[in-house]
Amino acid sequence: RPGAQEWVPERAEGVDALRAAAPSCRGCELWEPATQVVFSAGSPHASVALVGEQPGDQEDRRGIPFVGPAGQLLQRALEEAGLARDQVYVTNAVKHFRFTPRGNRRIHATPEAAHITACKPWLAEELRLVDPRVVVLLGATAAKALLGPAIRIGKDRGHPIERETTRGTKTFFVTTHPSAVLRTPEDARDAAYAALVDDLRAVAGLLS
Ligand code: URA
Ligand code: SF4
Fold first, then answer.
1. Domain 4-207 has CATH 3.40.50.720
2. Over the stretch 67-103, which tens digit does the pLDDT of each residue have?
3. Rounded to 10 degrees, what is the CA torsion of 119, 51, 75, 161?
4. N or C end: fewer C-beta atoms under 10 angstroms in the chain?
5. pLDDT tens string 48-71
6. ipTM value of the model?
7. Which residues, 6 or more positions from 140, have their beta carbon under 8 angstroms from its beta carbon?
8. Within 6 Å (CB) of ligand 1, which residues are found?
9. Which ligand sits nearest to residue 111's alpha carbon?
10. Percent of the chain that is helix, strand, coil (3-state, to 5)
C-alpha cells in the first residue's frame, strides 16, 4: 500500500481541488471493490469539521458522506445542538467503503490501521485547508486517526483536547459515532442519542 500522498495535489487552493483529484487515488486497495470515492460535504470554511470512519453502503452508491441512516441521525443531532449546516464540514477518515460481500448484500467492515494511515494524507490536507476551530471525531476510527492509538471513546469523549498541528494549536473533541447510537440496544438508545447531542452542544458552546 503506497498511501494516498502521491495522489494528493500539492498546493491545492481549496477542498474542491482535493475532491476533484480523489477519484484517481490508488493509495490502498479499497478503491477497487467500491463504487466510487466518497469525499467531503459541507462548508469549506466551516468552524467545525466532523470526521467519521468511512462511507457506508448508501454513501458508496451516492458518492456523498453521511446520507444513510447514520447520517440522518447525525443531521438531526446537529440541528438539536444548534449547529447550522453552514458551520460544519463533514468527512471521513477513510474515503472508500470497505465491506464484505454476503449474497447480494455488502456488510460494513471496519477499516484496518493500514487503511487509515494510507488515507490520512487526504484528511490532513482537508483540515489544513478548511482550518476549522474545532475538529469533532466521531468514534474510535477517526479519534485514533488524528489523536493516536491510545484514545478511548469512554474516557476521552465529551471534553476539548488541545493538540499542536501545522495550523497551530487546535481543539479536538471526541464523541460517539452515530452508527454506534443506532446499534445501541433499544432500552439505552435514547440515552446514547442524548449523550451525542450533549457533546455536540458542548462543541457549539466552544464557538461562542
Ligand atoms: N458512517 C461514517 O462514518 N461515514 C459516513 O459517511 C457514513 C456513515
Ligand atoms: Fe485512496 Fe483512501 Fe481510497 Fe485508499 S481509501 S484508495 S487511500 S482514497
1. no
2. 999 999 999 999 999 999 889 999 999 999 999 999 9
3. 180
4. C
5. 999 999 999 999 999 999 999 999
6. 0.96
7. 151, 152, 153, 177
8. 52-56, 59, 65-66, 68, 70-71, 92, 179
9. 2
10. 45, 20, 35
- The 10s digit of each residue's pLDDT in 12-45 is 999 999 999 999 999 999 999 999 999 999 999 9
- Would you say 52 and 90 are in contact if contact means Cβ atoms under 8 Å apart? yes
What sections of 43-185 are H helices per DSSP?
57-62, 69-80, 113-130, 139-147, 153-156, 178-183
Q: Is the CB of 94 under 6 A from ligand 2?
A: yes
What DSSP element (H or E) covers 193?
A: helix 186-207
